Fold this sequence. Notes:
The protein has a single domain (36-189), classed as tt1808, chain A, CATH 3.90.1570.10. It has four helices and 14 strands. A hairpin with a 7-residue loop joins strand 13 (167-169) and strand 14. The radius of gyration is 16 Å and the shape is globular. Helix 2 runs antiparallel to helix 4 (180-189). By secondary structure, the protein is of the alpha+beta class. The strands form four sheets. Strands 4-7-9-10-11-12 form a six-stranded mixed beta sheet, with helices on both faces. It has a three-stranded antiparallel beta sheet with strand order 1-3-2, with no helix packed on it. Strands 6-5-8 form a three-stranded mixed beta sheet, with no helix packed on it.
Amino acid sequence: MSILENRRFNYADYITWDDKERYELIDGIVYAMASPSQAHQEVSREISGQLWQFLRGKPCKLFTAPFDVRLNAESLDDKVVQPDLLVVCDKSKLDGKSVVGAPDMIIEILSSSNAGNKRHDKVTKFRLYQKAGVREYWIIDPESYTADVYILENGKYIANLYNDEDIVPVHVLEGCEINLADVFDDLTEE
């Protein structure tokens, strides 16, 4: 998954690259991103729709990929990710081109055909987001119709597991819930 492993990069390098390709930087190492599948896109559309409806007229903002998140901009600026969905409630973290610091919530949707992607989201990004202080991290699996929801408590993620019959509370957005039956509905009809 990683390319150009013999050199470390930062955000200043990253913004000069061809914008037709999508990359992430983790500890200065470049990771190419694959195009999302149809199932990935359908899940993303439904979750973003539910979140957008809830957030309409509220101060927190929803963003969808591609949108850069610079997790350590104040130091090396070598951790730049493009989560599938993210919510930012602190407007001072928005610089017009990216999020500077940890978003309040990140949602990653697994791609069924890519085992490396699954490990990247479940292990590498899990650790990265926990350390950066992302308060809520969701991993959605369109194959198993599940959502792994991690809530940050005392610097560590606490896991909550849900399936396609559940309505999931969004902890960082009081009163917001995501209906997983609706999220996975189009997938079960195919």
